[in-house]
């Protein structure tokens, strides 16, 4: 299947929300006093919607994702999943980090099978073996089933990490710069592979990225956030229908939207730099 395979159209604004941020703020205690990283953020993500969060480095984007993952609790406001406050991690949420996140002591097939051996996902051996084969095939890892991560390239280790997250079939994919460490060609291939998986399985996705092109190519909506503390600067509905393919990058409308979002993001980078300079004075 190619990236042009049909996937669900972007969720309509009237669709029931699955993830809801309601006036969320986060503050951390530091040696220099309280540090506010997220301030009064409200938005929602509907079923099977693909939402990207983009903004300056260190502004609080990952903190927002970590709240949905259940790793961080907000200092104010609430984040709910299907109407219930997020109280911790859960098997319905798969988290994919920029760091490869694979277990070096397990082989490729053992890494992919790891989540399927946990109590929440345990399956019969034959079914588990079929799932492992499927995702090794999808990620081009068939020839490396018995290999350990140290023998794989960086791109292959990231494919392995993504295969492990996909294998447990989470309803939600929470992705923090999952392709950021990859070379341009591998990154493009992984974006198309993600579209293929969504075509086949359907997911609700929250992506943290610094790449404007990536956000436009993959997303149904893009949330641009400010310099720290993160606030929502604007929300952009991506006007391109699914399915998508590489030719989308060449369209004039794509270039215009890319320029618009880059301008917004660069203004926030400038604001962040000014903050850094003031903190040194």
Architecture blueprint of SSEs:
Blueprint: E1 17-30, E2 33-46, E3 50-54, H1 61-69, E4 76-81, E5 84-85, E6 93-96, H2 108-113, H3 125-138, H4 154-167, E7 172-176, H5 184-201, E8 204-208, H6 212-218, E9 221-225, E10 232-237, H7 252-280
Parallel strand pairs: 3-8, 3-9, 6-7, 7-8
Antiparallel strand pairs: 1-2, 1-4, 4-5, 9-10
Offer a concise description of the structure.
The chain is built from seven helices and ten strands.
Please give a structural write-up:
There is one protein chain. By secondary structure, this protein is α/β, with parallel strands linked by helices. The protein folds into two domains: 17-92 and 171-280, Rossmann fold, CATH 3.40.50.300; 102-169, no CATH class. The protein contains seven helices and ten strands. The protein has helices at residues 61-69, 108-113, 125-138, 154-167, 184-201, 212-218, 252-280, and strands at 17-30, 33-46, 50-54, 76-81, 84-85, 93-96, 172-176, 204-208, 221-225, 232-237. A hairpin with a 6-residue loop joins strand 9 and strand 10 (232-237). It starts with 16 loop residues before the first strand and ends with a helix.
